[in-house]
Amino acid sequence: MSERPVDLTIKPVVSGAPRIVPVILSGGSGSRLWPISRGSYPKQFWPLLTDKTLLQETALRGEGAGLSAPIVVCNAEHRFIIAEQLREVGIHDARIVLEPVARNSAPAIAAAAFLVAETDPDAVLWVMAADAAITDAGALGQALQSAVSAANDGLFVTFGMKPTRPETGYGYIERGEEIANLAHVYRVAKFVEKPSAADAETLVADGRHLWNSGMFVAQAKTLLAETQAHEPQVYENVRRAVAERQTDLDFERLGAAGFGAAPDISVDYAIAERTQRAAVVPGDFGWSDIGSWDALWELSPKDDDGNATYGDVFLDRARNCYVRSDGIVATVAGVEDLIVVVTQDAVMVSHRDRAQDVKHMVSRLRAAGRKEALSHNRNYRPWGFYEGLIQGDRFQVKRIVVEPNQKLSLQKHFHRAEHWVVVEGTAIVTRDEEQHMVRENESIYLPLGCVHRLENPGKIPLTLIEVQSGPYLGEDDIVRIEDVYSRVQQG
User: Which keywords fit this entry according to its UniProt record (predicted)?
Assistant: First the structure.
């Protein structure tokens, strides 16, 4: 991958109280970056600009800046992916908070505010999405200093990005007058919905309008007071969900009844557009929500012909294209302004001007019942991953990789038998009342209905080929008897 020269961390922001708590929202699916980004493994978990994922880049911004450990609010399905990616970059003390159902950003932020307020209601929350890019950490640090000062005065602060082009995919903020005694902090005159192309031209030209970054800074007590004032149902139901939360391994699982009853509403509609405390800090630190393949092309290093490439790609007389392959070789010749993305199970081709329309194709795939709309061929689990190799009428072949010292659940199937062939590493296989050591180039048969478990006792990943046979081969044909990861469904 081409390296993007950027320091991911910001310099120390403030000293002394109150503390600053980064809150990372990781609930989106990023359908406009399909086929890389899908519900099972969305864009924040991919290394799109550097050798680190977007989630890792976001979490690292507070490292070394005197900030508290981050809170990550996420889909329960992604909890092990998030924990592992944070560990990979040395973040071991994050609080990972699990949403039982998706309820947009206002309930998620309220949950984080309640958790922080339990011990420090004066703490400042720095709320940001897990899937945005920032290229100038120094400028971000300066803007954050201004935002924190404003938040300590009881304001609800957002960052407004200086527009670089008429963009129809972003909302806008109209900047009002500068607030006395707060440098670089302005009143919000108005929030503007995503405009038409003509209106976007006008907004950019007048110099008063900024892109709405979706990042917010406010004290925990301010967030809770504004939520209670403008969305009392969010406040009461999330308060209940936090009070009824349970510890699940290293995760905090919000109460399902309370959180599920909270209105599905964004923080923009719930607070930002209603509050009398709204303020904006203008910024110019290379922010992008990477909301389309065209935006990723703009941020990526390019060759002399304006092409950005990733993976096994060959070009011939192509200009201003973005070509990415995470699977087979991709060749592109004699074209201009195209987006070409190749994965193991899908290919997407679009004109760069229509990059925002990829989500419409995802909707069509969903309507057609295609699994490619939501999940990848490779499926990650807390113990490793598996991926499909061959699919037949009554059989399928998978590759399974189990990380060192990890193990699958103790389980059985009603509709399929399995044959495991170890190709790398050593496996301990439980089959009913027996345990077997299975080494490289050895195999074991698991008849239909037997109780079994796979474990990697070694120091290197265990790789095996699994052949399933039977009348039904769905992942929901699992009766889980025991599981170290506290799961109740799937794999």
Answer: GTP-binding, Isomerase, Nucleotide-binding, Nucleotidyltransferase, Transferase
The three-class DSSP label of residue 335 is coil
Decide yes or no: CATH 3.40.630.30 for domain 20-283.
no
Please name the residues in contact with 175: beta carbons below 8 A apart, sequence gap of 6 or more. Answer: 160, 186, 187, 188, 189, 208, 209, 210, 280, 282
**What is the torsional sign of CA 25, 117, 154, 135?**
negative
pLDDT of residue 13: 52
136-180 pLDDT per residue, tens: 888 999 999 999 999 999 999 999 999 988 888 889 999 999 999
Residue 230 has what DSSP assignment?
A: H
What is the CB neighbour count within 10 angstroms for residue 488? 7
Domain boundaries, the chain: 20-283, 293-367, 378-482
Give the whole-angstrom CA distance, residue 241 versus residue 246.
Answer: 10
Mean of the per-residue pLDDT values of the chain: 92
Query: In the structure encoding, which two tokens stand for residue 92, read together?
Result: 């071991």
Would you tell me which CATH number, out of the four given (3.40.50.300, 2.60.120.10, 2.40.128.10, 3.30.40.10), belongs to the domain 378-482? 2.60.120.10
The closest alpha carbon to 189, from 158, 164, 217, belongs to 158
Q: Are 313 and 320 in contact (CB under 8 A)?
A: no
* Under 8 Å between Cβ of 173 and 213: no
pLDDT in tens, 373-405: 999 989 889 899 999 999 999 999 999 999 999
Q: Which of 116, 138, 135, 142 lies closest to 127 in space, CA to CA?
A: 116
Strand partners, 122: none
pTM summary value: 0.88
- The residue type at 436: H
Structure tokens at 350: 């679009």
Selection from 339, 344, 356, 384 nearest residue 292 by Cα: 356
d(CA 333, CA 335): 6
Q: What is the predicted pLDDT for the residue at 64?
A: 64
Instruction: Give the per-residue pLDDT at 459.
Output: 95
